[in-house]
Amino acid sequence: xxxxxxxxxxxxxxxxxxxxxxxxxxxxxxxxxxxxxxxxxxxxxxxxxxxxxxxxxxxxxxxxxxxxxxxxxxxxxxxxxxxxxxxxxxxxxxxxxxx
Length: 99
Description:
This protein is mainly alpha-helical. The chain is built from four helices and no strands. The termini are far apart.
């Protein structure tokens, strides 16, 4: 066993801690940790909804671009389907009624 030398006193060895020298920047970094910023171009916002159908059947709600964007975010963040739906719904709510 490679770490057997300190096995009997391992729980007494204190964990090393790094000293925070700039607490204001550290606090700002902690606040930004949960932030998510997504940019959409005007062309992407305009192409978000699907074009009307010319054949019989139900109307598509989202375009292929919107579906590809949702699947890309799902792959990047390793989300389940319901979590992806929630993320896209919150992004659309932030975009407002224009989207």
